[in-house]
Write a structure and sequence with these properties.
147 residues, mainly alpha, three-stranded antiparallel sheet
């Protein structure tokens, strides 16, 4: 077994930051009176021009299919989304007019908050952050594949 290249305290700090950011998104969902999964669905739909597949929502959010399906069923009952059959078992999720209006007061506000949070970052800082996150993702995936 290889020893970690970073002292565990550094990994702990990284994990704490990830957890704190997740908590901030959870707080946003609570303040917007949505579940985390409903906000995630609305967020993805807004970034995908109000329509995408269920599998894309799961992939982009990292939320399990069962959780997403539960959120979608509730949202469909409330008239927020429409589910349409695609190819075989695949389904497309589309925002209704009611869903688009809800998204403007919820997901769009979250997207605006994110944009404001990085408004003072230089393009070099944004590029460096993205480069480092991709590097970490790729290296972590490689290590997890070896487990």
């Amino acid at each position: 077994m290889n020893k970690p290249t970073l002292p565990q305290t550094q990994i702990d700090k990284m994990n704490l930051l990830y957890s704190e950011i997740d908590s901030i998104y959870h707080t946003a969902a609570l303040r917007l009176k949505l579940t985390d999964s409903a906000l995630a669905v609305l967020y993805v739909l807004r970034t995908e021009e109000n329509q995408c597949s269920i599998s894309d929502i799961c992939k982009v959010t990292g939320i399990g299919k069962q959780t997403i399906n539960s959120a979608l069923r509730k949202m469909e009952r409330e008239g927020i989304i429409l589910l349409k059959a695609m190819d075989g078992r695949k389904k497309t999720v589309t925002l209704t007019e009611k869903g688009a209006a809800l998204s403007m007061t919820t997901a769009d506000r979250l997207i605006d908050a994110e944009n404001q949070a990085i408004a003072d970052w230089s393009s070099d800082e944004i590029s460096e952050y993205l480069r480092l996150m991709r590097k970490f993702r790729d290296c972590l995936k490689k290590e997890i594949d070896n487990i």
